[in-house]
């Protein structure tokens, strides 16, 4: 496994270049930024928005936290059950229906940016948006790969178990077994087009097999 250190700015530039290579002026590009919260997938997505817009792409950033199932479903086995978190907190059907499928081949381009407020536990009542061909969708969150969600480009942010535990707030540490299970059962590196090691967010490194 080859590990190539890059600066945070260099990582953003390389991702923008890769997204540009798969961009389709007659369709849309769906990009997954997959990683535990401590790995910063939301933060990386936000850093990509302005550079992509500067290249002429309309960009929509969607967070998986805005597509969670109702609390009555998520918390059926307790509020801090890692297996329930791993197996069913994300409303994958809703994410497909409202975001991913409309931006796939033959799609309408009409998407819903948020579905449910995870704190208030009610529909956000967000307005639908119409994205023109050539637009880029950035979907950031955890446990995104391996279940067949359709993306043109998938980026996996990986941390060593020790680094992940160190950077995860104590009140969120209950989810660590879910990430260990994800790494073991899904092996997201095998689904990603790009794997980035982020044990230290100030010093990311791109991982590849020569």
Overview of the structural elements:
This protein has a single domain (2-208), classed as Rossmann fold (3-Layer(aba) Sandwich), CATH 3.40.50.300. The mean pLDDT is 95. Helix 4 (82-88) packs across helix 7. By secondary structure, the chain is of the alpha/beta class. The chain has 7 helices and 11 strands. The longest helix is centred in the N-terminal third of the chain and has 15 residues, at 8-22. Strand 10 and strand 11 form a beta hairpin. A 7-stranded mixed beta sheet has the order 1-11-10-9-2-8-3, with helices on one face. Strands 4-7 form a two-stranded antiparallel sheet. The protein has helices at residues 8-22, 41-54, 71-74, 82-88, 92-100, 161-167, 176-185; strands at residues 2-5, 29-34, 59-63, 110-111, 116-117, 122-123, 129-130, 136-141, 153-158, 194-197, 205-208. Keywords: Kinase, Transferase. GO terms for molecular function: kinase activity. InterPro entries: P-loop_NTPase. This is Uridine kinase.
Summarize the structure.
With 210 residues, the chain is an alpha/beta fold. The protein has 7 helices and 11 strands.
- Low-confidence segments, ≥5 residues, pLDDT <50? none
CATH superfamily: P-loop containing nucleotide triphosphate hydrolases
Strand content: 15-25%
Total count of domains:
1
Shape: globular
Oligomer: single chain
CATH topology: Rossmann fold
Provide the CATH architecture. Answer: 3-Layer(aba) Sandwich
- Side by side, the strands of the main sheet go 1-11-10-9-2-8-3
The CATH C-level name is Alpha Beta
Q: State Rg.
A: 17 Å
Number of helices: 7
Count every beta strand, where a strand is a DSSP E run of 2 or more residues: 11
- Cα separation of the termini: 7 Å
* Helical amount: 25-40%
> Structural class, from secondary structure content?
alpha/beta
Topology order in helix (H) and strand (E) letters:
EHEHEHHHEEEEEEHHEE
